[in-house]
Each structure stands twice: as C-alpha cells, then as structure tokens.
Amino acid sequence: MKLIANAIIMAFTQTGDPTIRENIQAWQKLDTDEQLALFWFIYTEMGDAITPAAPNASTVSPEIAEGLFNQVKALDHEQQLQLQRDLINRVDSQMSRQYGSLSDTTKLLFWYRLAQGMDENTIIPMPEDYELSDDAEGLLDKIKALSFEQQITLFRDYVSPMGAEPKAGAEI
User: Fold this and answer.
1) What confidence score (pLDDT) does residue 16 get?
2) Out of 2.60.40.1120, 1.10.10.10, 1.10.2090.10, 3.30.70.2190, which CATH number does the structure's domain 2-171 have?
3) What is the sign, positive or negative, of the torsion defined by CA atoms of 89, 95, 98, 104?
4) 135-139-143 Cα angle (round to 5)
5) What is the reported pTM?
6) Residue 91 scores a pLDDT above 70
7) Nearest Cα to Cα of residue 19 among 151, 166, 169, 163
8) Per-residue pLDDT, 13
9) 35, 28 in Cβ contact below 8 A?
C-alpha cells in the first residue's frame, strides 16, 4: 500500500528537481490539517517574499482567483475549513472542480488569498496556540533554505494536483 501511495504522490509532482520532489512528498505525507497548518506558517514566515511572484506571473488570472476566493469567503468558517480539506484530498465537488480548472499559478494565488483572508479573519483563522509537529517544523526549515525559484516551484507543484478534475460540459 505504501508503494502505491508513493507512486500517486510521485505522479503529482511536476519538477525534475529531486529536492523539490522530496519536499512535496514529505508535505503530502502529513495529515490534511497539518498540510494546511504548514501552508499558514509558510505564509506568515515567507509571505512577503512570495507575494510578488504569484500576482505578477504571466499565467495568473487574478480575477478568477478572487472570484473563487469570494465564494469561499461567503461560507461559514467550518465550511471554509472543510473546503480547504476537500481541495487537499481531491474531493469531487463543484468548488473543487472550479479550483481544478485553474492554471497552476492562479491556484497559487488563490491559496495566497486564502492566507490573507485568514490574516484578516474573513477566512477561518489558524488557532493561536497551534504548533507544528516536528515533521512539519523540519519541513518548514528545509523549505526556507531553498532558493526563491525552488520555493515557487515547490509551492506551484504542491497546489497543482489539488481539487478535482473539471467535468465536461456545464458542470465544471
């Protein structure tokens, strides 16, 4: 079973860089809430450096990311958390399919907007007393040690396979 899980994880990584692949695989092996927490801690510690990369990329669609963000913002906090969990777990729902239809860079901007929303309390915030596990803390340190280009590639490759595949026709 572990071999199958590793093959699935490998199939969803896009880069040939073994360091990035290893970090993505370690991130994906964390439980869902720990993956979300790691994303939050990355945003709080590195958001200023990452901010310029997502909104200005040539393949990003800020209006589309903002539209999906506004749909999430309209949900109550528990629904917001569940949607984030569903995206990571690739649950098939309309919002997950909408997310799945986005470009990788727009997905990255969407997650950045979610983190901003958490900061502004419009998206369910991280519990103030939350502490990362030792595994997640070690991974955060490894990610911080990567070059800026490697970090952006890692984040893009991490968010890319999330969500569900869009359906043909009007069902998204």
Assistant:
1) 82
2) 1.10.2090.10
3) negative
4) 175
5) 0.84
6) yes
7) 151
8) 45
9) yes
